[in-house]
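Continuing the series of single-chain predictions for the mutant panel. This is the parent chain; the variants come on the following pages.
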Amino acid sequence: MTSAAAHSGGGPAKKKPTIVLVHGAFADGSGFTDVAGRLLDDGYPVIAAANPLRGLTSDAAAVRALLASIDGPIVLVGHSYGGQVISTAATGNANVKALVYLAAFVPETGESAEALSGKFPGSTVGESLKPVPLPDGGVDLYINPALFHQNFAGDLPAERAALYAVTQRPAAGAALGEPASTPQAWHTIPSHYLIAGADRIIPPAAQRFMAERAHSRTQVVRGASHMVFASQPRTTVEFIEKAAR
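Parent structure:
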């Protein structure tokens, strides 16, 4: 044996888990660019999942199918509504070793993102939404670009927040209102919660409540907006990598 591990008396290097990043509403996978780049530099396989944002059941099914295609251990990361999706998608998947919530919804069965956002005072999500009626009678929801910076991404430079605002993907109103209908994965899979201390979409009090209920390991990022993963990518990566070890 000639490897460094062999010379040191250790076994073969442990395979790093695949980090699967699941974006929330009003976003897409490109928002994770800085986080994904750092994880890749540190040797982790990374997938930024395309969350359809059409309905909790169908969104979770799409992510569940992606997870089934991955060999080996997985650390599943969800931001905002993405937390709702991963909590359902990971149920029953033995390869998912940890759930990481980034300023995210962590529902119990029967709870929706819409209900959880209003459980504690301080959310501006209602006043921030711009609805677009659809021909089928449904509605797509956007964050009003005029309010995106102050309410969604307050700790990002205005120019960068403006780019996120104009490239955001809408969420179907039905998705945010659909309650979790299956057992939630956080009951059986260890979880970790990065709390955004100045979040104006999911109030920090709501984040603490959900993290405590799930018995998550937590870290508070003081002054961080709802887009904590974009404004604080180094802190976010360090938090994810702790969960991956």
